[in-house]
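Dear Dr. H.,

I hope your travels went smoothly. While you were away I took the liberty of generating a structure for the chain from your last submission, since the lab meeting agenda had it listed for discussion. I wanted you to have the full record in hand beforehand rather than looking at slides cold. The sequence, exactly as received, is reproduced here:
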Amino acid sequence: MVKGIGVDIIEIDRIEKSIAQLGDSFLHKVFTSGEIAYCSAKTTAAQHYAARFAAKEALSKALSTGWAGEFRWKDVEVTNEMSGQPRIELHGSLKHSLERCSVLVSLSHSASHVVAMVVIEELSP
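The corresponding predicted structure, in token form, is as follows:
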């Protein structure tokens, strides 16, 4: 059964400006060390950071909580399967609260924008 759906779209240059203005403090507040290593190694790093930012926002919308309560930026980590397919790994209290759920993510981008969609599906007992 679907528990929540969230979508987010973001301008890549918005993330690029945040990185330029705030540097490591922004990166370490929002992204895990694994995400930073992955994105920083890419030629289009801002695009990859934007995709992960949008995925985190989409998950917060799927939860219907936004960034309130115990939800933390780094409780959500976007990784990739060997095929390149993105997936969400949960940490902290969020991992515990969604342990009986599957969290699916889809990412897409153009030259200027990234969109993310997250579906939270409750698993059968």
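Two observations you may find useful: The chain has one domain: 2-122. The chain has a mean pLDDT of 93.

With kind regards,
E. W.
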